[in-house]
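Pasting as-is:
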Amino acid sequence: MNAAVGFLSRDEWLSQVGGMTEEHRESRAVAYERRAAEVHRQVVEVAVARHQYAVASAALDADCEADSVSVMAQALSEAEERTKWHRQRAAGQRRRVESVRSCAQDGVMQVGCTGCGEQRHYMRTCSSSLLCSQCRTRRNQRTRQRFRRSRLVALAALRRRGLLHGFGRWSEKLLTLTIPHAEMGRPLEPERRLAILKAGWVRLLRDLNRLVFGPASAAKRVEVHWYAAHEWTPGEDGLGHPHLHVWLLCPWLDRDFLVERWRVALAAEGFCWGEDERPILDVRAARGRDGRTDDSVANELIKYLTKDLVETKSEHGANRLVDPAVYARMYQLYDGKRRSQGSKGFTALADENVAKATCCSCGACGFEVTFKRSDDPDYESALEGVAFTREAALERRERGQTPVVAA
């Protein structure tokens, strides 16, 4: 099966993927609406029950029973507010393709401080990292920034305890976990591949915590940290090659031990190994492509969480798009699922030694959001505000948004 399509434009490709995922997105939208209706009913029932109990227990005068209308109005208002998130998600599922097409072109989001009135402007984006390459890039940048900050804090803690040098030292490692594409000679379906990978990682992590990480943490009184990121590529057979990149900050790990535990983990999840078949696993010192162990580690770990481009060139020199049918199946597998995860407390380290930011320079944290579309009279000035907001953000970052970690 050919996983690359060389004759589709991005818009045609998006239309096909959208059509193939329409049933999936509709089912998720219905689920959101069902949950919204349930929350709405619960809020109203609780409000009515409280009012009736207050009247029955003489906590209110008999005349106050007439206030049930105002109680109901207040309950409906609260229900609308509490179901707003679900209704927005339902609408977003149905408008997913249109939102991706109009990403960063559908208007400007204007954020105004309720304290001093200062305004900031941002381009309105679709936030669909699975279908929009722009939003995926922004998402990966945010993930890399948090990973870098957490990593620096974790390394500083080990450095203070003298665990980065000498015998028995701890070090950074990059572990790549893959699964076979076939089981007993029969190709695995994409859903089965991803399910085995996820379940196998959970079981392997449980074994590592019990046999290696737990004893090491207890002996040195310091936490073992890890960060895992899923990656998906089309694979040689075009049915998808999901794999897991894991950054580890821990004591020495034996490769043969990891291979055996990974083999046992996959077998425990129902994968049938051949007589002489062994899993493919890679573990190495964490170094980026330039050979250093600084920010390039983050770039190597979180290159792309998913890819919608095959890295081979077509006759015209352009990247070829993945077969829409293959990518549509991948979309349904990853939609709404976490594609990165860290050890307990690791991502929270990113907030240590970083100045607490407020919504505005005046110190207030309240804000109001309005949207400016292209047909609004002040849309051009809002676009100018976007550029100004970007420049101000860069200046704030240079003045102290980067973490200060003790050596």
